[in-house]
Design a protein that fits this description.
Two copies of one chain form a homodimer.
Chain A: E1 6-12, E2 16-21, H1 26-32, E3 51-54, E4 57-59, E5 64-66, H2 76-84, E6 92-93, E7 103-106, E8 133-139, H3 151-163, E9 169-170, H4 175-184, E10 188-194, E11 201-207, E12 214-220, E13 224-231, E14 237-244, H5 254-263, H6 268-289, E15 297-304, H7 306-313, E16 333-336, E17 349-352, H8 362-371, E18 380-384, E19 389-395, E20 398-404, E21 425-431, E22 438-442, H9 454-457, E23 465-466, H10 468-480, E24 501-504, E25 507-514, E26 519-522, H11 524-548, E27 555-559, H12 560-565, H13 568-573, E28 585-589, H14 591-601, H15 603-615, E29 617-618, H16 625-633, H17 645-650, H18 671-674
Parallel strand pairs in A: 1-7, 9-11, 12-15, 15-17, 18-27, 20-29, 21-23, 27-28
Antiparallel strand pairs in A: 1-2, 3-6, 3-7, 4-5, 8-10, 10-11, 12-13, 13-14, 16-17, 18-19, 19-20, 21-22, 24-25, 25-26
Helix pairs in contact in A: 8-14, 8-15, 11-16, 14-15
């Protein structure tokens, strides 16, 4: 190797490899291959961020013999660093370790410096980092009368000399701080440099070596706004918080907020201010929870459905309330956080993920980014249920997106005993097919209602209603217990044998829960509302399956709060989603939030979601004649469009009934033609 | 020509030429050659901005025979335009006139549309236009459910389709307006698109065809802030206004304002606010004067000396008050006007010209841009006198810049009867060498004081003092009349023969004006103060001449208010400037303002001034040992360093006196060596 003056270096786990001149620091080698190794101090051995683990040995597969002596021995700089902070025995500072021969190097997935930070949530998955904002420590030339350049020029020169950052501009809010920071740091400063393809911009400046920087990922939901504080140096989420969207005082659901603006054209600023205020409050809270401050938050990313997206940006959402449902701004936005009233550090940047279409927002785009159907060969269905269900279907080859007008039934609205997910709301239901008695679980208590501890441990408010996920389970259990037919009709004949089924005018009502002061019941109208909602969702899914030319899906991902709480089995019994292997159906929680964190931590993910949104085929259900047909067919339970082999295997479905009235078996496939 | 399917077109006065396919519209041909022809409507024949004059004939020199029939005859679109607005007989719309054969075309230097606008000032010179912000009329595709893109996407598509503007972003303040503007204009809108090398940004949007856009060029002086409103479509200055810099309440001269901030570190925001407030007031005023509004001002450019530059940007100027006189920000700044508190249109942009060095500001850079010594072979001296004199010397080959600490004497401070230039201040002086009686002119009256109308027409305040330019003339006239010697000593012997020379302790005072209540006098100290100031200026000039290796200059340009009012002859008599042919000495008025207008109207001029500032050699007088030597030598009148052949020819100088004390002829060249 030394004859040719260069050596082969393999970086794991990325597998990137290259030949480098003898004497090249490993950090430089990694960078030239695009292997992301953090470094704040610019190779001075101060920050300790650039740790790697050399792995000498025989790597027959890679044809590399990496001898321990092929790396320069630890030098004084590393010894000094070890003296200040613990450097694990197997670690080296890649800025100091020089290539002397062939070598294999393991790059830890996160920096070892912040190991004490606890992983807070299971969904806190590891995201490769390539942040748009990076901290760069530089030593700036002092001013000299003989060479009268400006402080900024000399800072810029230092960034070029030490970090190969050319022509960095200074964000105007930093004008006033530049001089004092340089002098306070005695011409040694750390700059936050943002570059998202639009040229380097110095967005913050600290005296001396600054090693803390945070990012904020925000998911603006209609009901809840959630924010995650991410340590930009390690990629870890260090604090999360949520708050009710304060816009609810302008309207519980999306369309009522759109109506509010329509009726009060001057009311938009108040809505915008409300949501921005909530975001700023969350930024403050998560920063405090993490022992940080808002002025350490260098960037923020935002996702939300189209209406929230628009209101957050100060854009009138009323166009989204009617055809042609035209978005004003749909593409990705990269801007100064201050320009949209977001109070992070003065020079902080904001990135708003792109929307897919008028009803398929940046939240769906982010969820798609996170669940990556575009990276798998398996046909994947992603559903995020709200007032509109956002649906993405496809695989690596082709991706389709649409939204279905499910209405607010799944959110507990339009249901006689429906309520928001809150303590006291029924969320789990089991109905005994023999007695038709139900046991329930309510939010705020881990016990079933037939356990003795329930009375004691139930929330003080008692059992107050049924939340969205509870409704799905109740209707599904009613169907499995034979209380309602395939067609959704409450079987009045049962009223004779059970006190749980009671007449209610010309229809019948099921009594789910008998309370001290009030009963929780499911009326025929409630069943119909859920049937309509689930038929709309299913029809949308089915339409996309038609467009994609598939008759089954291989993976289902249920995103969002509703998706997190419903049991996939009941969703399938109800016919909310098509038949699928049950273990291939998973709730993925706040996938939109995950997508927001991905865009925060990696510029590549921004390009990926932008490409994704450009490429995905947008289907407008309202324009599709077959949507109506699918909708009618999907009213039945589980639904009459498809066979459901996987569901039948997993659940004992009631024996098929003969058709009553105009619904039933004969219409199972292509019903309309035969009618 | 037609055999090959193309034709030769020559554009005048630029002389650019090229071959184009038959049928190419002249506008497209002009653009492909980089010939600037305005057009707002994008070739639809609506705006009439793209007028050119075809000039058929034989052009032997250019080997072109341009037959009238080599241009397509006027078409319907032009007929329609002519119907709405007058199209001069010799004019064609270049978007409609198609090339049918060889042609010579004259591009009018300004658009014919706004001919009614009156030229207001002589200095309103024509500036080639290539504005960073341009108006672009587009027809945007309407939203379509089947193709659910955002309004911005479709606007951006239209800009690309019709204007070849790729990937335009929308400035955040426009988010809220986008939808309504598109719909109000029925999908026909005019966008202001800014691109200064940093990518296209939509900064404003109007429904329909918008043909008015203005720019603001601002010169922030220590004493006065001047603003010019420029019609971006014609390049003409349509309104100008000035206001006293409100910072004077924090200190009359620059250094006292620096001291104010030094003593009151929290006082900076008040100074910044004061200057920004004044700028915004001027923007309002010039817009109103021109029958426009601030929200039609698309861009603003700013120049100022380093202290004003820093305070305007919110940067502490105290570093500029002491060695090493380090600027915080010296480079050019391109930013959102709102980020520096400038209230023009919401998305308006600001461009701040670069400073040259800690004492040589953006005003000097702009003046250099305007006077263009870097474009001539003749050695040019540019001087802008203030508390510091900013000096630029050189030619195409090499350019040097320095500042000299003249102190405030030239501004009327430190002079016993000195005052600011205001009505009542003496600005012109003639002294009769026989009688030693003086006649004067005062600001606010066109008469000499010996004219009978003077008493009647003089300002009500009477004769109140001597302004800066008046002082120069007074001292020079005193020298020419023999009242003071070459060494600046008031000749006490004259007191015997004239009541105009009176004893004042051990020195003598000259009585310039006998007033009813007070006399205006020039004391020996006054003479000394001016000698010190002029010696400092001259020493700086001489130092640069040394550095450049020249012993005379070929052109002198006196910039700034002071430069505008002094008579070049007296400046030379006083030895303020080196000897030069008198007709090569010119006051160029507000050259800094002209430079600001150039940067406003042409992106090329921005690159030019940026290059200029990088290339100019900065000389720090305080570091130069010869500066002190030159300074001492320059105390005499006219000065003793140089012969003055041109001045001697133009003015009858007093006979040379023998040296008294340590100044005089023997030291004229290289005095120090011989001392």
């Amino acid at each position: 190797m030394t004859e040719t003056g260069d050596a082969l270096v393999l970086f794991m786990p990325s597998g990137r490899r290259g030949r480098f001149e003898i004497g090249t620091p490993l950090l430089d080698a990694a960078r030239s291959l695009g292997v992301y190794v953090e470094s704040v101090c610019g190779g001075r051995g101060l920050c300790g961020r650039c740790q790697i683990t050399p792995t000498p040995g025989q790597f027959a597969k890679h044809k590399i013999t990496a001898r321990p002596e092929n790396l320069s021995p630890p030098n004084e700089v590393e010894a000094r660093y070890s003296g200040r902070r613990a450097l694990p025995a197997d670690r080296r500072l890649s800025c100091q370790a020089k290539i002397l021969g062939d070598m294999v190097v393991d790059v830890p997935t996160d920096s070892a410096v912040n190991k004490q930070v606890v992983r807070k949530r299971a969904e806190n998955r590891s995201i490769d980092r390539d942040t748009a904002t990076r901290l760069m420590y530089v030593e700036v030339t002092e001013p000299d009368m003989a060479n009268p350049s400006g402080d900024l020029d000399r800072l810029s020169e230092a960034l070029e000399r030490e970090w190969m950052v050319k022509g960095a501009r200074l964000d105007p809010p930093l004008f006033a701080k530049l001089q004092k920071t340089l002098r306070k740091g005695e011409w040694k400063v750390t700059a936050a440099v943002h570059d998202d393809g639009d040229g380097p911009l110095i967005t913050a400046l600290w005296p001396g070596l600054q090693q803390r920087a945070f990012g904020l990922a925000v998911d603006i939901g209609s009901t809840t706004i959630a924010a995650h504080l991410v340590d930009m140096m390690s990629g870890r989420t260090v604090a999360s918080a949520g708050t009710a969207n304060p816009q609810v005082r302008f309207g519980e659901d999306l369309m009522s907020r759109v109506s509010y603006v329509l009726m009060n054209p001057d009311g938009l600023p108040a809505l915008t201010e409300a949501v921005r205020g909530a975001v700023n409050g969350l930024a403050e809270k998560v920063a405090r929870d993490a022992g940080a401050t808002r002025d350490l938050i260098v960037e923020a990313t935002f996702v939300g459905n189209p209406v929230m997206h628009h209101i957050f940006l100060g854009i009138d959402p009323t166009e989204l309330g009617g055809a042609p449902f035209a978005l004003a701004v749909s593409g990705p936005l990269a801007l100064a956080a201050r320009d949209i009233g977001v109070e992070i550090m003065d020079g902080g940047r904001a990135y708003v993920l792109p929307c897919i279409a008028g009803h398929v927002g940046a939240d769906a785009a982010a969820a798609t980014l996170a669940e990556a159907p575009h990276k798998t060969d398996r046909i994947t269905l992603m559903v995020d249920v709200g007032t509109n269900a956002e649906i993405v279907l496809g695989s690596r080859d082709r991706l389709l997106a649409a939204s279905s007008p499910t209405g607010p039934a799944f959110e507990g609205a339009e249901i006689s005993c429906g309520q928001r997910a809150a303590p006291g709301a029924i969320e789990r239901v089991r109905i005994d097919p023999e007695t038709l008695q139900a046991k329930v679980k309510v939010i705020g208590c881990d016990r079933w209602s037939d356990e003795p501890e329930f009375a004691e441990e139930a929330p003080a408010v008692g059992v107050t209603g049924i939340c969205g996920s509870g409704i799905v389970e109740t209707i599904a259990e009613m169907f499995l217990a034979g209380i309602i037919s395939e067609d959704g009709v409450v079987n009045g004949a049962l009223a004779e044998s059970s006190d749980r089924v009671v007449a209610n005018g010309r229809t019948f009502t099921y009594v789910l829960w008998r309370g001290a002061t009030m009963d929780i019941t499911v009326t025929q109208n409630d069943v119909r509302a859920i049937q309509l909602a689930k038929a709309a969702l299913y029809a949308g899914v089915r339409l996309l399956m038609d467009k994609l030319g598939v008759d089954h899906v291989e993976r289902i991902r249920l995103a969002g709060a509703f998706g997190s709480y419903i049991d996939p089995k009941y969703a399938m019994v109800l016919g909310l989603i098509p038949d699928c292997e049950l273990d291939q159906v998973a709730a993925v929680g706040n996938a939109a939030g995950t997508g927001a964190r991905m865009a925060l931590l990696n510029r590549g993910h921004r390009r990926e979601v932008e490409e994704l949104v450009r490429e995905v085929e947008k289907i407008e259900t309202a324009l599709e004649p077959r949507f109506q047909e699918h909708f009618v067919n999907a009213m039945a339970l589980p639904n009459k469009t498809e066979p459901f082999p996987h569901l039948s295997e997993a659940v004992a479905l009631p024996a098929r009934q003969q058709p009553a009235g105009d619904t039933g078996a004969p219409r199972r496939r292509g019903g309309r033609q035969r009618r």
